[in-house]
Design goal:
The protein is built from 13 helices and 16 strands. The chain is α+β, with helices and mostly antiparallel strands. Helix 1 crosses helix 4 and helix 3 packs across helix 4. It is globular and about 55 Å long.
């Protein structure tokens, strides 16, 4: 089968057979492979946890009855509901749901079946023979060589084969890969590898090795923000390797009643495993979701010392700050 090709112009060519492969993935299989926590069984079909009128069928079709929108497969959903272009939707399915694509839209619910077992296994994208495009991309996002080199050496960042995307890998305390976030080096595609456990995140937990939990943990929404922060503190003369830092696998907007807000599943796992982490430094985005989620943590984690440290005003996130502030005025960035 031909490989997907990315050109210097930014254009992407997807072989027709890969387009057909992506079209064969039903929405239910796509959600089972990438977002199983959002599914709720409803009779012979499924609905979404937050949208009971959204029906997903075993044959791959779906209908959002309250909105009068439906489709035949995952591609239809990603283009109609999430607003992706057709090409980006194809890339999303091929990157995020290789297991579903391989089995078609007939995955058995038998927990002992090969398909069900494959669903639960983290399928890391194949590694490329080098990391040249990834290094070039990360340099373009403002990261320095020390940070890039460290995370590549640890196997936490690598270049995927074929797509030449950057893969951010999250490990458990036994150094076993549990989650992988994928980011295109050309275009805007972002995805999560099939079988990723979203209770794990991407980052460094130096305290697990040194036992020094007094420094607390720095929290970010995305791997790129964590890496940007590592670059900033490195430029200020600190050894980023000795910080506890974690990017979370998704955050929740605060509930209308803040007391009902949820602790991000990744953070809940880390705090459960390391209760000695009592200081939280929150560097979420400067948008409504990020700010409300950060503020909610102060309310729902009263036993913790929560410090809100968003990017300076006028900047969307930590990477935006890193990319748009001259090095001469970065010093003193709050850490």
């Amino acid at each position: 089968m031909d490989e997907i090709k990315k050109f210097k112009s930014g254009k992407v060519w997807i072989p027709p057979e890969k387009v057909e492969q992506a079209k064969s993935v039903g929405l239910l299989d796509y959600f089972k492979a990438t977002r199983p926590g959002e599914l709720v069984r409803k009779g012979k079909d499924y609905c979404l946890k937050d949208h009971s009128s959204f029906s997903l069928s075993e044959n791959g079709r779906w209908n959002w009855f309250s909105q009068g929108i439906g489709g035949r497969n995952a591609i239809d959903y990603l283009t109609k509901i999430e607003g992706l272009s057709f090409q980006d939707a194809v890339l999303a399915v091929l990157n995020e749901a290789p297991v579903a694509a391989a089995y078609g839209s007939t995955m058995s619910e038998n927990k002992g079946s090969a398909a069900a077992k494959a669903e639960k296994k983290l399928l890391l994208p194949d590694r490329d023979s080098n990391n040249d495009k990834v290094i070039e991309y990360l340099h373009g996002r403002g990261l320095n060589d020390d940070v890039i080199g460290f995370f590549i050496e640890k196997g936490m960042i690598y270049q995927t084969k074929g797509y030449r995307s950057v893969c951010f890998v999250g490990y458990d305390s036994n150094n076993i890969p549990r989650l992988a976030n994928i980011r295109a080096t050309v275009g805007d595609f972002k995805g999560t590898a099939t079988g990723s456990d979203r209770s794990y995140g991407f980052g460094i937990l130096d305290a697990a090795a040194t036992g020094d939990f007094t420094k607390g943990i720095h929290l970010f929404e995305a791997p790129m923000d964590l890496l940007s922060y590592a670059t900033l503190i490195s430029e200020n003369g600190y050894d980023f390797r000795k910080f506890n830092m974690m990017s979370l696998s998704g955050i929740y907007a605060a509930a209308k009643n803040v007391q009902d807000s949820k602790v991000p599943v990744c953070l809940a796992r880390v705090l459960g495993e390391y209760p000695e982490l009592t200081k939280l430094y929150v560097h979420f985005d400067n948008d409504m979701t990020g700010m409300s989620a950060a503020s909610a943590l102060k309310v729902i984690l009263p036993e913790k010392e929560v410090h809100l440290q968003p990017p300076p005003k006028g900047f969307k996130d930590v990477n935006d700050y890193l990319c748009n502030i001259d090095k001469t005025v970065r010093r003193g960035f709050e850490r």
